[in-house]
């Protein structure tokens, strides 16, 4: 029986030899040789803000001078699809996400690391866009990307590129923030409109036109947290902070409720949900309270400090839309209950999995 010839697309060819003149990632970029060195010196370091000729001897770790005190450390991996979406991309998302994880402990960032898993065949132009975006985001946040790593995997072993970032930050003296500190009577404050990041991702991934462009809310929150702490000093009545990323607002407040053994009562009418987000979620059958955010925080604050903290938040662009959306109660510990616009209440269950996979 005669077999039909197999069509071969030259675009799918990947040469195992380290070609110097290439516009795509090849295996040699992860081999620790000249190609690896050139990728670091010619693409990553300029993107991260290193002046020409300023690169010193290579080290296995970064050395940072820190004042005595408590250190916060966080790490996260970013596998978002697509890589680019309205208002942002995987690069600035990785920088902002790690900064925000530090900030939720009250820490101010000292430095970040960046690790890249690159798929063989990835266009260098795409990698350069991501790296430059990371450099700009770090510069805007006033923090440096101080060390990193690059690995290359075979074609088909990754979806273009994955990014891991880790961060180190200093927690100011006297600051004690943690989910277990939430107290009955605390006001629950959200820093602004929710659901924008998840809808921005879905609009591109599904190719759906919602009638308006919804952009990601990705932003660093450490300066907002610093302003909140300054307004609260020296009382220490900001008890808990959380950035509502995967699982959205509901996952964030329930995690804190379970850690502290308290209940959550949300005023659903007070929660700022943009009209475009509400419309998109209605069309897709999603709950905006469980859609991811990347530039918002939830704060649990003693009522005696609520007005001062709100004023400090609203004085900054990251917190201009801050609102009180509920309070901590003694009833139904570990659960969130919402008061609807009709005056009834409902238990708000967390999703078993994720409503939107790979949103960060």
Total separate domains: 2
Tally of DSSP β-strands: 13
CATH architecture of the largest domain: Alpha-Beta Complex
Q: Give the CA-based shape.
A: globular
- Total DSSP helices: 8
Strand content: 15-25%
Q: Quick check: average pLDDT?
A: 88
The structural class is alpha+beta
Rounded to an integer, what's the Rg over CA atoms? Answer: 23 Å
CATH class of the largest domain: Alpha Beta
Task: Name the helicity range.
Answer: 25-40%
The CATH superfamily of the largest domain bears the name PurM-like C-terminal domain
Largest sheet: 7 strands, mixed
User: Can you list the strand order of the major beta sheet?
Assistant: 8-10-7-11-9-12-13
SSE topology:
Layout: H1 34-47, E1 70-78, E2 84-85, E3 88-89, H2 90-103, E4 108-119, H3 124-141, E5 144-153, E6 161-171, E7 187-190, H4 196-205, H5 222-232, E8 238-242, H6 248-260, E9 263-267, H7 275-284, E10 298-301, H8 306-314, E11 323-329, E12 336-339, E13 345-347
Parallel strand pairs: 4-5, 9-12
Antiparallel strand pairs: 1-6, 2-3, 4-6, 7-10, 7-11, 8-10, 9-11, 12-13
Helix pairs in contact: 1-3, 2-3, 5-8
Domain PurM-like C-terminal: 184-332
Protein name: Hydrogenase expression/formation protein HypE
Family: Belongs to the HypE family.
């Amino acid at each position: 029986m005669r077999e039909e010839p197999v069509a071969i697309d030259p675009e799918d060819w990947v040469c195992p030899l380290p070609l110097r003149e290439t516009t795509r990632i090849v295996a040699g970029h992860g081999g620790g040789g000249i190609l690896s060195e050139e990728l670091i010196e010619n693409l990553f370091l300029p993107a991260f803000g290193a002046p020409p000729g300023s690169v010193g001897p290579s080290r296995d770790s970064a050395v940072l001078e820190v004042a005595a005190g408590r250190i916060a450390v966080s790490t996260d991996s970013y596998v978002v699809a697509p890589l680019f979406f309205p208002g942002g991309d995987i690069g600035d998302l990785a920088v902002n996400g790690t900064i925000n994880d530090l900030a939720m402990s009250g820490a101010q960032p000292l430095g970040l690391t960046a690790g890249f898993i690159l798929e063989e065949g990835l266009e260098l132009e795409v990698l350069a866009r991501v790296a430059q975006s990371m450099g700009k985001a770090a510069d805007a946040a006033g923090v440096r990307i101080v060390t990193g790593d690059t690995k290359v995997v075979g074609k088909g072993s990754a979806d273009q590129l994955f990014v891991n970032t880790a961060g180190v930050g200093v927690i100011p003296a006297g600051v004690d923030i943690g989910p277990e500190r939430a107290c009955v009577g605390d006001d629950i404050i959200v820093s602004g409109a929710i659901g924008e990041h998840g809808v921005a991702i879905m609009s591109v991934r599904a190719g759906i036109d919602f009638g308006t462009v919804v952009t990601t809310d990705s932003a660093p929150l450490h300066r907002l947290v610093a302003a909140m702490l300054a307004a609260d000093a020296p009382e220490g009545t900001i008890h808990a902070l959380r950035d509502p990323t995967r699982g959205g607002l509901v996952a964030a407040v329930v995690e804190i409720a379970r850690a502290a053994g308290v209940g959550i009562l949300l005023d659903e009418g007070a929660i700022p949900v943009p009209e475009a987000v509400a419309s998109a979620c209605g069309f897709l059958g999603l709950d905006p309270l469980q859609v991811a955010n990347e530039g918002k925080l939830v704060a649990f604050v003693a009522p005696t400090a609520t007005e001062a903290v709100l004023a400090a938040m609203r004085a900054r662009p990251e917190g201009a839309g801050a609102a009180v959306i509920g309070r901590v109660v003694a009833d139904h510990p570990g659960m969130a209950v919402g008061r609807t616009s009709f005056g009834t209440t409902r238990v708000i269950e967390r999703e078993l999995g994720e409503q939107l996979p790979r949103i960060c």
